[in-house]
Amino acid sequence: MGHPRLFSGLLAALVLSGAAAHALAAPAQTFTKKLERAVSVPTGSSLQVENLAGHVAIHAGQGAQAQITATVVAGGSDMAAARALADTIRLNVSTQSDTVLVHVDYPVQQHDRYHYIPTHPTDDQDRGIKVLGFHIGGGHSSSSFDYQDTRVKVYQGSDDGVPLHVDLDIALPAGAKVLVDNRVGRIDAEHLRNDLELKSASGDMAVTDLTGALKTHSGSGDMQIADVRGDIEAHTGSGDLQLNRIDGSTEVHTGSGDINGGHLGGRNVELHTGSGDVTLDQLGGDLKVETGSGDVKLSDLSKVTKVRVDAGSGDIGLSGDLSAMQDFTLRSGSGDITLKTGTPPAVRLDISGSDIDVDWSGLSHVESGRRSFRAEVGAGSGRGHISTGSGDVLLR
């Protein structure tokens, strides 16, 4: 009978601490205002949008101009103070060479520290749990960088700095080349026919239904990319990547995070993670996968001719129709390597590992040692190299 009381006591403590944290983090009054600009992007020019902190939504527009709507969110001890802080924001438009620049101007000469409380329901920093309406947990973070030639710092999850940020809604005309640099906060882009580049020092990104080339860069944040008809290049210093239905070459890098997804049908697929698992299915083209620490699982492969997989310490597994593979190298420092296929590739096999088990048809010129195995499979026209420092090898 004591457990319900204990839980109730803990819950009450959590609510009180959450309420206290909420009271510290939230300003007494919040004022919002909108700024709007219609921007023409001449043929052959590009559009660049810069913002310090906030949520950015990018989508297809109706006309020939880009429509920018900025929602300024400011806090203060009273409504007059919040309004005065909001009035310091400017939405400037200028032209530099062949680039139309839309810049959200912040009062960095008066304030070099900002407090960002995400207002969008999918913002990456709005984590933790909610108990009786209070947000508890989610962590604290800060990012420092130069903005308007001034070193500034943006805090999330604490009450340091002035409570000021700007959410952007960007409606784009088809065909315009676009760069969006949102230093802190989530970026969502969907239903576009544009070459698109997204940058963030700290923030998640989600891109869905894009016809055009895509480049993404985030110092820290997860990325979700789906239904892209064009080449993609994605980089995040720390975060997971989810990739689905990419009709174009794919190159992704994460310093620390998992890479998941499938239906990558481009000519080249190149995946790198310093620490994390790689799990993908329905792949084609040439594959290159590197992970410093993590497992690699590639399934439902077809029409793959060239494969390179390096796992510093992790298992490697390939399955599907591997008959088209003519050049593959699979290496793990300390992990098992498994290949499963109905029709083996016609290659000259060279395998090293602890326990080697090869059950493929069409083997000839077999040489088997304590930690090595060599053979020709079928015509032996290709090359297959498999090595693991302290793991087993299984071919089925």
Describe the structure.
The longest helix has 24 residues, at 2-25. Helix content is 8%, strand content 55%. It folds into 2 domains: 22-169, no CATH class; 182-395, no CATH class. Mean pLDDT is 91; it is low at 10-25 and 124-137. It is mostly beta strands and 396 residues long. The chain contains 2 helices and 36 strands. It is elongated and about 85 Å long. Keywords: Signal.
Please give a quick description of this structure.
Pfam families: DUF4097 (PF13349). The protein is mostly beta strands and 396 residues long.
Q: Count helical runs.
A: 2
Structural class: mainly beta
* Largest β-sheet summary: 18 strands, mixed
Task: Report the radius of gyration as a whole number of Å.
Answer: 26 Å
Q: What is the end-to-end distance?
A: 57 Å
Helix content: under 10%
> How many beta-strand segments?
36
Q: Note poorly predicted spans.
A: 10-25, 124-137
Which of globular, elongated, flat, extended, rod-shaped describes the shape? Answer: elongated
Strand content: over 45%
The structural domain count equals 2
Q: What does the average pLDDT come to? A: 91
